Amino acid sequence: MIIDIILPLSLVFIMFTLGLGLTTNDFINIVREPKALGIGIMNQMVLLPIVAFCIVTLSGLTQEMAVGMMILASCPGGVTSNMITKLAKGDTALSISYTAVVSIVTVITLPMIAALSMQHFMGSDAPPLDILSLGLTMFLITAVPVGIGLLVHERYQGLSDSFEPMATRISTVLFVIIVIGALASEWEAFIDNVLTLGPAIIVLMIIMLFIGYKSAQWFSMGERRAVTVAIESGIQNATVGITIGNMILNPETGLSLLSLPSGVYGILMYLVCLPFVLWFIRQRR
User: Fold this and answer.
1) Which tens digit of pLDDT belongs to each residue from 149-201?
2) How far, in Å, CA of 96 to CA of 150, rounded?
3) Distance separating alpha carbons of residues 267 and 212, to the nearest angstrom
4) What pTM was computed for the model?
5) Torsion angle, CA of 255/175/44/112, rounded to 10 degrees?
6) Is residue 10 very low, low, confident or very high in pLDDT (cuts 50, 70, 90)?
7) Helical axes 79-87 vs 223-234, angle rounded to 10°
8) Which domains does the chain carry?
9) Which of 52, 77, 81 lies closest to 65, judged by CA?
10) Helix, strand, coil percentages in the chain from 3-state DSSP, rounded to 5
11) How far apart, in whole angstroms, are the C-alpha atoms of residue 94 and residue 99?
12) CA–CA separation, 235 and 209 (whole Å)
């Protein structure tokens, strides 16, 4: 019961914090640049799930881990991708715009991919899943808090600007607690699968960072935007993955096995992305 309440509320607050950093111009600007929008959407919404499916199929993960990986690959970016982009001296405005648009679109795409993945990997063992109900729940705990945060920013900018740094720190603490909880609650499953789950996640991130960076270069988007597209392609919102995994396969205690890949990802993404950020900073000197 505690997990069922605390986990969604934590995600609501994290998404609200994301909304505090948005403006209506973030949505307008990305629409005004169809090339940047098209490349970002293609990488994150199409190529990422396809690459994840190929890796999962070849890696021999268990049914639940495979579905959990596909849920992770269907998640939007988040505050973390925006922060890493800023650290890498990328185009932070573009990063925020991507996050804003994709966070809305995944309300539809994530439930669909989750349902198809469960049918493919779990077959008759798959629990019943109401796609419409999951999509509505996602809308309420992701899109609505983002919208409220955006509204607060637009109408009470002074209050928003003063509260956002504290809200970001609180969100970071909540994220760490959620990741630790995901690993601790399924520790034995984590140990049993770490030799296949860890490499699968690392390979997925490296491939998507490479695809994101090169695709932006191929379309002459410039170095700052190339690193932005790379980070948005390779960094997902692990909190969404953990929350949705637990909603689909709700255990009596702790977090579900479907949440474990997102929990492991929450740690590994820093180990993979920070070297990329350091490399990019050195390249620009």
Assistant:
1) 888 888 888 878 788 788 878 888 887 787 777 777 777 777 877 788 889 99
2) 12
3) 21
4) 0.86
5) 30
6) confident
7) 150
8) 2-283 (1.20.1530.20)
9) 52
10) 85, 0, 15
11) 9
12) 8
